[in-house]
Write a structure and sequence with these properties.
- It contains 8 helices and 13 strands.
- Helix 2 packs parallel to helix 3 and helix 6 crosses helix 8.
- It folds into 2 domains: 115 residues, Response regulator (Rossmann fold, 3-Layer(aba) Sandwich); 105 residues, Winged helix-like DNA-binding domain superfamily/Winged helix DNA-binding domain (Arc Repressor Mutant, subunit A).
- The protein is an alpha/beta fold and 230 residues long.
Length: 230
């Protein structure tokens, strides 16, 4: 499968390319918006990793153009623009996924694999599904397919659960979660994460899901997809 990285920071693009190549993808790089759009329109790519702030043509302009032309390609926006308004604009213009910088390389790879390979995660522009959980990424509604119960999950709870759902059955350390959700340089209380995880677990229990978040002693946490409730 072919991937195009449209990113004006060449060293970053080259690092992403090297990691994706290990996954046996065929990868090209464009460091300019106009060149990126030309390559998308003519290159028969399966997926595009797209920055927003590009020379000559922005990522949003590229996205609008390829959707206008009904180009059948998956698009993951990878950008430093982390406001909710930017994320909503990205999905509104037709992005399939949105990841903010700084980011973990393995999370990006996991998201690429979600879109291009069979995986435990089922995702489209509106929903993210793991096990019997269905998270609406537009409305922040969490639904249990098994019980058909739903509940709202917002703000930090949403961001934490979304992060876990993109990485099911993988151990995620506390530092990774803090860096991803609160930012690398932010100062937060040490028990903040445990408080939010407690809220999420209660909501999973309320809707009757068999998906759980388990602590892995000394390592972090893992979203576990079980065949049935304990």
């Amino acid at each position: 499968m072919r991937i195009l990285i449209v990113e004006n920071e060449f060293n970053l693009a080259d690092a992403i390319k090297a990691r994706l190549t290990e996954e046996r993808y065929s990868v090209d790089i464009s460091c300019d918006g106009e060149e990126g759009l030309y390559n998308i329109l003519n290159g028969q790519y399966d997926l595009v990793i797209l920055d927003i702030m590009l020379p000559h043509k922005s990522g949003f302009e590229i996205l609008q153009e390829i959707r206008k032309r009904s180009i059948d390609v998956k698009v993951i926006i990878l950008t430093a623009k982390d406001l909710l308004e930017d994320k909503l604009n990205g999905f509104g213009y037709g992005a399939n996924d949105y990841l903010t910088k700084p980011f973990y390389m393995e999370e990006l790879i996991a998201r690429v694999n979600v879109w291009l390979r069979n995986n435990q995660v089922n995702v489209n522009s509106d929903y993210l599904e793991v096990g019997d959980l269905k998270l609406n990424i537009r409305t922040s509604s969490l639904n249990c397919i098994t019980t058909n119960e739903s509940i709202d999950i917002i703000c930090k709870e949403f961001l934490i659960l979304e992060y876990f759902m993109y990485n099911p059955n993988q151990i995620i350390s506390k530092s990774q979660i803090y860096d991803k959700i609160w930012g690398i340089d932010s100062e937060v209380e040490s028990n903040n994460l445990e408080v939010y995880l407690s809220f999420i677990r209660k909501k999973l229990k309320i809707i009757g899901s068999y998906v759980t978040i388990k602590a892995v002693r000394g390592l972090g946490y893992r979203l576990e997809v079980n065949d049935e409730k304990d």
